[in-house]
Design a protein that fits this description.
The longest helix has 27 residues, at 121-147. By secondary structure, the chain is an alpha+beta fold. It is built from 10 helices and 9 strands. The strands form 2 sheets. Strands 1, 2, 3, 4, 5 and 6 form a 6-stranded antiparallel beta sheet that branches. It has a 3-stranded antiparallel beta sheet with strand order 7-9-8, with no helix packed on it.
């Protein structure tokens, strides 16, 4: 990993709080690889031999149905991880994972990772703390789905993708916008309406590119929003 990639890994919720040296030790030998759009990473029911860290691109985790459609459980992008829960319990993947936009990923092999954690008690306790913070974050996400309007959820999501904390920015989304809708707990038509609402906050779109006029302004809107927005039904 180069310096940028290590910074992304250290910023994931799974490794938050760990020193870069500890992260490098845990991931020693795990090299980033680029995966083409459409590539399957694992199938539902396969042994959970690895978990993944996303450096760039987009990956969906889903479960196909017998009639040919699918239920999407998660859409992951830079700075996020997936597959770690099944890995820690030495189970099988409960769903499949597929690259939806070309992605650069690190596959961390389960057996090697668990062995390194077992061999260092201090590191094991640090990992427990990180997993606890990760769980807290997931609880907060559920709370946001329940208490934020669709426009606020979209605003917070776009801010999380922005490469800067203030000023203008451009972020790229998967061409299949329904994946973003699934991730944010709304219907595709609700996502379209949310983008319309965010025009007043300086958000414009061009294909899969989203231009943010003022990241800080959008952050404030996502956290508070006008009263009528908080009370609006999606």
């Amino acid at each position: 990993m180069d310096e940028r990639e290590l910074s992304i890994v250290c910023g994931t919720r799974l490794f938050a709080g760990l020193k870069p040296e500890a992260v490098s030790k845990l991931l020693h030998g795990a090299a980033p690889r680029t995966h083409a759009k459409g590539q399957m990473l694992f199938e539902q029911g396969e042994p959970a031999n690895a978990f993944y860290i996303v450096l760039d691109g987009w990956v969906k985790v889903f479960r196909p149905s017998v009639v040919g459609d699918e239920a999407v459980f998660g859409v992951f992008t830079s700075g996020e991880t997936f597959g770690e829960a099944a890995m820690f319990i030495q189970g099988r993947y409960p769903a499949a994972a597929q690259v939806v936009e070309e992605a650069r990923l690190i596959a961390v092999h389960s057996e090697v990772f668990r062995g390194r954690v077992r061999g260092d008690p201090d590191l094991a306790f640090e990992m427990l703390a990180s997993m606890s913070r990760h769980l807290h974050s997931l609880i907060n996400q559920v709370e946001q789905l329940q208490t934020r309007s669709s426009a606020q959820r979209l605003a917070q999501f776009l801010v999380s993708l922005a490469p800067v904390e203030e000023g203008a920015a451009v972020v790229a989304l998967p061409y299949d916008k329904s994946l973003i809708a699934y991730r944010l707990g709304m219907k595709p038509e609700s996502l379209s309406r949310a983008f319309v609402r965010l025009r007043s906050q300086g958000v414009t779109t061009d294909g899969n590119r989203v231009m943010l006029g003022d990241v800080e302004r959008l952050r404030v809107y996502g956290e508070t929003g006008p009263l009528r927005e908080r009370m609006a039904s999606d």
